[in-house]
Amino acid sequence: MPSQTDNIVSxxxxxxxxxxxxxxxxxxxxxxxxxxSHCQIVAEVARQLISRFPESIRDRLFPTGSEMAVxxxxxxxxxxxxxxxxxxxxxxxxxxxxxxxxxxxxLEKQWGGHAGVSQATAEEIGxxxxxxxxxxxxxxxxxxxxxxxxxxxxxxxxxxxxxxKKLVAALKECLQADWPKFDSAAQARVVAGLxxxxxxxxxxxxxENPDEDWRPNIAAALNDAGFIKPVIRHGLxxxxxxxxxxxxxxxxxxxxxxxEQVSEPGVYILEAQMGMGKTEAALYAAYRLLSQEKAxxxxxxxPTQLTSNKIYDRFNAFLxxxxxxxTPKQALLLHSGAWLQDTxxxxxGRPGGSWFSQNKRGLLAPFAVGTIDQxxxxxxxxxxxxxxxxxxxxxxxxxxxxxxxxxxxGTILNELVAFLRQIDCTVIILSATLxxxxxxxxxxxxxxxxxxxxVTALPAVKEKNKLVEVGVPTVDNPPVILHSCxxxxxxxxxxxxxxxxxxxxxxIENTVAEAQQRxxxxxxxxxxxxxxxxxxxxxxxxxxxxxxxGRWVNLYGRAGWPQRxxxxxxxxxTQVLEQSLDxxxxxxxxxxxxxxxxxxxxxRLWRHTDTPRHAGAKPECWLLTPTLEHALANPHSAFxxxxxxxxxxxxxxSLEVWKDMQSIRLPSGIRPxxxxxxxxxxxxxxxxxxxxxxxxxxxxxxGEQAQQALAKxxxxxxxxxxxxxxxxxxxxERDTHDLLLLRSLRTQDDTTHIRLLDxxxxxxxxxxxxxxxxxxxxxxxxxxxxxxxxxPAYCPPKTAKHELEKLHLHEVFYLGRPEDDEALLRVAIVSxxxxxxxxxxxxxxxxxxxxxxxxxxxxxxxxxx
Length: 865
Description:
The protein is of the alpha/beta class. The strands form six sheets. Strands 5-4-6-7-3-8-9 form a seven-stranded mixed beta sheet, with helices on both faces. A seven-stranded mixed beta sheet has the order 12-13-11-14-15-10-16, sandwiched between helices. It has a four-stranded mixed beta sheet with strand order 21-17-22-23, with no helix packed on it. The radius of gyration is 28 Å and the shape is globular. The protein starts with 20 loop residues before the first strand and ends with a strand.
């Protein structure tokens, strides 16, 4: 069968091949920069980015010639299908150009577009190991080049191949560089990320006009994208950093011993009780490394979005002390939302691009707080996983609350820690409740100490690559009284009684649905009794969640001390309340959970000795728990929905340890409880059956062995790259679809009119040229505050991509690439009663009644109920 290019006898000279289109102020699309010019720009952006790394780190991460690999990413644009596509986009009839006769641009999909041509060309000319793959992956995916060679007919044959080779020679000449030789796959992964990021910045507004000299714009483009080299203040003491107003806060012994150990990149673990100041110890250790130019920034990793939102305040206060006012664009370092509104990062980072997201963009900022999933994707075979690797390279990566992950996540986390060690990171792991087996898996070394608190250090320098374990002496707090209760009603009455007295009560459930139900059970009765009630979980829009958090975390924290005496309160929530939040309750009610989770929850009870409390309050926790006999005989009946969240075997092992306890002393009780719960043992009868289910699975949950195998599959660098919504980072969490909630949505006069849940209105003009980039960013930020993450089972029906594009939602949201099986945005209209409807007014749910209320969040109620 003749190829589409059989009749092509000559190629267009590489100097004349366009790389970009450009939109003029009237909306006209014209040709933009040439391939050579664009490749030079991107290479120079990369060179400047590399120069912003401290010298010692720079030399280890980026081999000589890295900018040559980066700049060559688009050599595949010198190909007939790509040139034809660009000309078509500008309204030029390419069929009349002799070199493009018979070309079918749509065939590009078969080999992943121009990136596939770049990879095949690089392989054909014999580049060093990893380089061809870096060129091929720069749009996030491995292109399906298969066995196509660089001079293949579909790529224009020998004549176009020759032009690509000439382009490579021209780049080597103008960059004065040759191909890099990589020491490891990890190093190549960082340069792959550098390639994508440099391409995004080099495609931004600073370089759009081909008639302007691009060279003076490089530094401004990097600063505008948020790639700021912070100027760090030197010689600050711990007290000056964390208590600048009073200068009274002193280092505690565990903090001091930990900071002493963290002197260079490596892996460092601080195990200490809740409320001991692990966060401050980690940040001060990071500050010392930054001031010595042994790190490029800090990425603070937390299990959930709720906890990460509250850490911002503490992190920002820290940055205000350690970052000098001489730092350019300092405001970008201190405000989470500023990165979206005030930075321009080119194609992928614009509104409607796949990286217009605080979660993702934060990885590229010098300082950021983020969730574990974004960090884990740095080692997963997921779209733009290597961009995350580049974002983390050379940083202090603080992994907080590490105990709280299942085996699936834990397997990926072990890989992440090992990878971060290879890319010059300092990994700081914080946990109150780490088992010895978990510690050893993270370090990939045997440990011996049973002390608690415990500092474990594994520096990266080879001659010092020796494990250090330092036990810390400590004194117990007053004992916490424990009371087991198997009736919700009894605990509810007790909570109301305590709140009526004026106590601040915390009630923690294991699922969002149960937390919502408890809130409904309590709210009206509490109001009648003169008490306040709140609800915190993960299924609120960011707008509502921020408002709820701001109020309730402040009320239960130090900021709320003056208001504690005004009235009693009950705050209901899920696991988001057990981690990284400095909240302090007088009385705790918790649904039974695994030992490490229960200990975390106890860390929110009588957290500080100087918190003002009601005279009748005492440190007491009621555990909502079944009997062990019932749990062993029928765990799903005994534990209810909790048995879907946590393994019944682990719940029963935990129950066996806690069932007869009437009080607990902290911190001395932590290590023995963890060891008793998680020590391996031979099981018989019902225990053996539950252990078999944990290892091998059941109809309710995947077994550990399969989880581990699935996790390893996501780590594989071979095979098809996963779209992000398919890249599960936690096995039990499948809340992967974005649902946009609005009051109304209509199109009129070339404009989409949107009413938000709070009644305010926004308009989206039809045509990107009708607003400035800053105006689009502002609109996109406002609309991103209206999203909620929901389980696909509870989603409204999918809207076709072209229908969403008619509403011009693609200007502010990334709508995915259906050809890559990426998830589309879902949209629902919230009626006055809170019911979710489709855009044409029908109920949005099939098997479920879907609703959203600002006090309850998103709910899916089975139609059978």
